[in-house]
Amino acid sequence: MVYGNVYPGRLTSRNAGTGIAETGIWSEACLITRLPILDAHNTVHGYELLSRGGFDSPLAAETEPAGKEQAPGQASGHSQTESLVRLTRGLLVFISRTANSLVANSVIDLPANRTVIQLAAGSKPTPELVQSCRMLKEAGYGLALEDYSGNSEVLTGFADYIKVDLAANDVAARKELLVKAKTTSAKLVAKNVDSQEQFRQVRAEGFDLFEGYYFSRPQSQKDHRIPGNKLVHLEILELIQNDPYDLHRLSQLVSCNPSLTFRLLRLVNSPICAVRQEVTSIQSALLLVGQDVFRRVASVAIVSDLNAEQPAEVLRMALVRSRFCELAASLCDLSQAEQYLIGMVSLFPAMLDIRMDELVQMLPLRQPASDALQGKEIVEGALLRWMMAIERGDWTACDAVVATYGLKQTALKRHYNEAITWAETSLTSMA
What we know:
Blueprint: E1 14-15, E2 20-23, E3 32-39, E4 44-51, E5 62-63, H1 78-87, E6 92-97, H2 99-104, E7 115-120, H3 127-139, E8 142-146, H4 153-156, E9 161-165, H5 171-181, E10 187-191, H6 196-205, E11 209-211, H7 228-239, H8 247-255, H9 258-268, H10 282-306, H11 312-328, H12 336-345, H13 348-352, H14 356-359, H15 367-373, H16 382-392, H17 395-405, H18 409-430
Helix pairs in contact: 7-8, 7-10, 9-10, 10-12, 11-12, 11-16, 11-18, 12-15, 16-17
């Protein structure tokens, strides 16, 4: 079956004005990030991709000759597809489209069985839009209705997901919407879940999936005492910031924690360190990989252990932030080691269920690093602010950091992409 430019298993994006197919994701004008959608057990179900300007716009600079048509099944936009699939870890991809773009078939190249097209629930169900939805469903794509208001009976029949915005609907309004939505087989997604309290509330109401960064925030805002076994992790973290650090004391502390020792040796023997001989002790690990690499690997093992009781996505975010801040540090003439630490510690409050202002008093941080972690707008916090902005899809905030410090958006995007790849490699090495 062929439907316009849509073939089963793939969607293509074409610039109607030039006839040029657009591919890739890291063009100068394009910023793309991912927002996790989690289930009731805090496991990632899929990622919504957020793009500056939306996915109705051309995405990138790689092109093919104008007027060249593609046959069904012919390879197209491999760099774009591979980049987006890597960004979403091969899980479901949720992308928003307008009704007009669906009717025009101007959509991007992603696998049908892993792609969910999001459509505003308030879209007018014209015959053309209904036909487009029917064809997309037959081709294997999923369909989600965004900002559901209960008045989309025609389109609801096609929906695999129904998304309700918590910011626009109180408890009473949600109760009415859930009654209507549960007459369908669609999964119910609570959108803009911003706190642990909200998560517990909407989970109890009957929602299936949850979108928002509630999981990356402390559960309690009250004073909280860190357990003694986790305080040892902070002591190790403090120790490895010294240059040189006390190897004997480090070995003692790590050896007292079998889980940490295991994680650390797994990482040292993994591809991220590329050691040619098996490493069986902390001392030999340091001698073989050197202090800088060991410091990074040890901190990954520490943060993995600290996050053992929290959603895995918190650890993933911490690794991406820390590696990004380290890679981009030279753009701001900052210390790579300190920026790496800032990126990682930024998610310790979620891991340890403690407020940041309490946490920074326990760590060996310079005052500028402490200030950066508490949100003060200083250069030491610039990279973390850019990273947190892109996580939210706040392009204005990204641009503000770039303008304030004279940075290059393309360089930041490249380091962001590299950080995601490194984080996934690190997580795979510990699996």
